[in-house]
Amino acid sequence: MDLGLENIHVLVTGASGGIGLETVKLYLSLGANVTAHYNSNSKPIQNLQVKFPALQCAQADLSSESAVKSMFDALSGTPFGPVAVIVVNHGIWSPQDVPIVDMTIEQWDHTVSANLTSSFLVCREFLRHLRAATESVKDRAAIVLIGSTSGKYGEANHGDYAISKSGEFYVCRESVMC
Ligand SMILES: NC(=O)c1ccc[n+]([C@@H]2O[C@H](COP(=O)([O-])OP(=O)(O)OC[C@H]3O[C@@H](n4cnc5c(N)ncnc54)[C@H](OP(=O)(O)O)[C@@H]3O)[C@@H](O)[C@H]2O)c1
């Protein structure tokens, strides 16, 4: 099946994790040029790079505004050119059950920053770069946000995660309306 992704530059965030790495493999199989993003663990991506020349990697803590900007600036200068498609997949989920009554402000802030604020920063920087892109890149532009049923129905003892995934939906909706 031809989805028109041949040589299209796709950025997958959180590509060192389970869903992200599989997403990278799928886009590569469809002929895309893929940037696989990671934060602290490059190993799974390096293992893939041996097999796929159309794969490059990029490191950034996406909760940092300056790091997100630097990443997009650097990607524009690579042979893959400006990013046309982003898959906003990175995210954290605390393995510990913590009801709201016991949750610290540090946990709340950390999850919202790593999941929701980072998604806003990635979408905003992508859209800013898109303004300067050619019409052919704009024609292919797409944002994919990886949500969760938690964002729709909530999740007991993971209120920080649920609210961050719910908020991502609105970041995506407004991005599409730009
Ligand atoms: N797994 C599930 O059952 C499930 C269900 C519903 C929705 N989801 C959603 O699917 C997505 C992927 O889940 P997953 O299970 O594949 O996750 P995962 O294996 O835990 O991987 C998480 C990824 O996010 C990156 N990351 C974490 N904090 C970051 C930060 N501050 N800046 C940049 N990158 C950061 C990690 O990078 P490093 O490892 O390099 O640090 C890693 O690549 C998430 O958005 C999650 O909410 C997952």
Written description of the protein model:
There is one protein chain. This protein is an alpha/beta fold and 178 residues long. It has one domain: Rossmann fold (3-Layer(aba) Sandwich). The chain is built from 7 helices and 5 strands. The protein has a 5-stranded parallel sheet, with helices on both faces. The longest helix has 27 residues, at 105-131. The protein is globular. The chain starts with 8 loop residues before the first strand and ends with a helix. NADP nicotinamide-adenine-dinucleotide phosphate (NAP) is lined by residues 14, 16-20, 38-41, 61-63, 89-93, 114, 118, 146, 148. Belongs to the short-chain dehydrogenases/reductases (SDR) family. This is NAD(P)-binding protein. GO terms for molecular function: oxidoreductase activity, acting on the CH-OH group of donors, NAD or NADP as acceptor; quinone binding.
